[in-house]
Amino acid sequence: MTESYPAPYRGRFAPSPTGSLHVGNARTALLAWLHARAAGGSFVMRVEDLDFGRVRPGIMEAQLDELRWLGLDWDEGPDVGGPHAPYVQSRRVEGYEDALRRLAAAGLLFACGCSRRDIAAAASAPHAGDEGPRYAGMCREHAVPAGAPLTRWAVSEYALRFRLAEDEEVCFDDGVHGRACFRPAAETGDFVVRRKDGVAAYQLAVVVDDAAMGITHVVRGGDLLGSTARQLLLFRALGLPEPRYTHVPLLLGADGERLAKRHGAVSLTELRREGIAPEAVVGWLASTCGLAVPGERLPPAELVPRFAIERIPATPYVVTGASLAALHG
């Protein structure tokens, strides 16, 4: 391993309890774990359960059990505790509310009653990828004044958005992709930090939690590369230390879409039910990112000496029928 790390290294994995983990989630978890263990650092498990409409009872426990079956462990988490508990986002609301108040005090929040249809209909709102149309600033005059109670903006009627500076470019060095630059104001526009249901939005919650838990390195899927610029702006606005980012490529099906049920049995639950050994799954995952040869079986611990960020490809791995068949033995 050639990369140097600031001490102490603290990494994390943060699944959402909405269903069984699939091999794409498992691959990201494995790489995040390897990154932390190869650096001699700590690994934190945090559960991101703020998408209440999709969260299902018992899934958190099942996901943690699947990750342990795979051979991963963590130093802090909802099932083992730790100095930064709670490790479940739905129990960390106070921190998000405090961050919103600080953003309001800095003049960076405004209330927005626009629907998705309103935003899409705005003449200057080009499409902004999988996050929908760019927000064109229709409600920017509805500033949230410093000290005003956030309950003044009725839940179900108003979201709270973070006010972006025009044309600001945000650049960072990604562990896999190298130098990455984005212009959030032009690409997504002012973004939501509190949803209309009164719950902290992903962009805010992940920033507050990473800072509160002392996370120094974030390893996550490449689909979140574009979110990083917005999160860095929140770190800076809140005066919080910024972690270093590594966005690992996704697993795609032969059709070029993200690996899903239609491509075959790809969840850890299904693989485990079939009697496939966890070492076979780990070996297969490692082979998709250059850390093992096809057909190799081994536990995660044996991959630690092999791990180096430089070995991780920047392009997605396309899973073919043949490679899935090999996984299933």
TrEMBL record:
Q: Where is this motif: 'KMSKS' region?
A: 258-262
State the free-text cofactor note. Binds 1 zinc ion per subunit.
Alphabetized UniProt keyword annotations: Aminoacyl-tRNA synthetase, ATP-binding, Ligase, Metal-binding, Nucleotide-binding, Protein biosynthesis, Zinc
User: Under what name is this protein listed?
Assistant: Glutamyl-Q tRNA(Asp) synthetase
From which organism does this entry originate? uncultured Gemmatimonadota bacterium
Q: Which Gene3D superfamilies match?
A: HUPs
- Can you supply one Gene Ontology CC term for this chain's record? cytosol
Q: Provide the binding site for ATP.
A: 261
Q: Which residues cross the membrane?
A: none
UniProt superkingdom: Bacteria
- Family to which this protein belongs: Belongs to the class-I aminoacyl-tRNA synthetase family. GluQ subfamily.
Which residue range or ranges hold the Glutamyl/glutaminyl-tRNA synthetase class Ib catalytic domain?
A: 10-286
PANTHER family, alphabetically?
A: GLUTAMATE--TRNA LIGASE, GLUTAMYL-Q TRNA(ASP) SYNTHETASE
